[in-house]
Amino acid sequence: MSLIVGRRELILGGVGLALSPGMALAAPPPRLAFQVFRNGTKVGEHLMTFAGDDRNRTVTANVAMTAKVGPVPVYKYKHTAVEKWVDGKWASVETTTNGNGKITKASARAMPGFVQITGPAGAQRGPAEAVPLSHWNSANFSRPLFNQQEGKLLKVRCTQVAPGHWQVRGDAEIDDFYDASGNWLALRGKLQDGSKMEYKRV
After folding, report:
1. Rounded Cα–Cα distance for residues 95 and 84 (Å)
2. Helix (H, G, I), strand (E, B), or coil: what is residue 57?
3. Within 10 Å of residue 107's Cβ, how many Cβ atoms?
4. Which are the contacts of 167, defined by CB distance < 8 A and separation ≥ 6?
């Protein structure tokens, strides 16, 4: 699943060497859980679960957030993404997002020679090596990325600035952090209104 910081909401959405065809995925823990903060105030949670083995894996992400003005909820957000890897290669993702009652769906699937990406604005073809920005697998930063909530290719530059620290700049402003085993540890990002978003693993 991926997190893109943009407009008023989070558009949600990784480790080691870039994956080549047939290469096994690095083994994450069975689950990764995060608390989500906006300007230091907790606004929600992000849970990722991993099923399968190192070559065939299903990654499920569930995100729930509520923004408040004082005690009054003003924006509620829920996002679910199911990402599949087959024979060590990314295969597909399907997402459903509820932003204050508005439901949107998007999907993408690896096809021979391209990736078919479909979102609320329609369908497009991405490069064959494109993958979703879902953060848990930093090997993806060496490949073209797409926004798995909106179903759109991203114009971003990904740079490893230190061991375990990747910067994403362009359509998104995100810093992702990974522990010594390569598992997603934390995230910091900036919203368009200037507020700061932070993920802390629990």
Report:
1. 12
2. strand
3. 18
4. 158, 159, 160, 161, 174, 175
How many C-beta atoms lie closer than 10 Å to residue 193's C-beta? 7
In this prediction the pTM is 0.84
**Cα end-to-end span (Å), the chain:** 18
Dihedral, CA of residue 161, residue 63, residue 101 and residue 122, to nearest 10 = 50
CB atoms within 10 A of CB 158: 20
Using CA atoms, how far residue 151 sits from 15, 67, 157, in Å, is 23, 24, 18
pLDDT digits (tens, 9 = 90+) for 1-34: 334 443 334 434 432 222 333 334 556 789 999 9
Within 8 A by CB and 6+ apart from 26, the residues are: 15, 16, 54, 137, 139, 182
